Amino acid sequence: MAKDKVVRDGPAEWLRPLDRQPLVIQVAETVRLAILGGRWGRGERLPNEADLADDFKVSRATLREAIGMLVFAGIVVRRHGSGTFVREEGREDGTSCSRTLAIGSDDHSAGHHPIDRR
């Protein structure tokens, strides 16, 4: 398995199409859990956006927003011209992205809607 690929049967299959959480939150959570699970270590570069978007079967815009959430949460850091890296000193509490970002209790009022990806 190539180091830059998440897993062969992975990311896209891990997303729950009828989940009430927005797709971008699901992607951010999946990447966060992969980091916590040791898929990428501290200081290690994540695959580029195009490859991750392809792995998750989402648009680059969705992937970019998900990575932005992880940056905001202090889990990863972007280095212009170099890529996105797991922070050397990151969060240890395992806080989920949806909890960290607290998008609100009513997703629909925030403009978020479940996606049926059948």
Automatic annotation (TrEMBL):
Compositionally biased region (Basic and acidic residues): 105-118
Transmembrane stretches, start-end: none
Entry protein name: HTH gntR-type domain-containing protein
PANTHER family named in the record: MANNOSYL-D-GLYCERATE TRANSPORT/METABOLISM SYSTEM REPRESSOR MNGR-RELATED (PTHR44846), MANNOSYL-D-GLYCERATE TRANSPORT_METABOLISM SYSTEM REPRESSOR MNGR-RELATED (PTHR44846:SF1)
UniProt KW keywords: DNA-binding, Transcription, Transcription regulation
HTH gntR-type domain residues: 21-89
Upper taxonomic lineage: Bacteria, Pseudomonadati, Pseudomonadota, Alphaproteobacteria, Hyphomicrobiales
Pfam families, sorted: GntR (PF00392)
Domain of life of the native organism: Bacteria
GO BP term, pick one: negative regulation of DNA-templated transcription
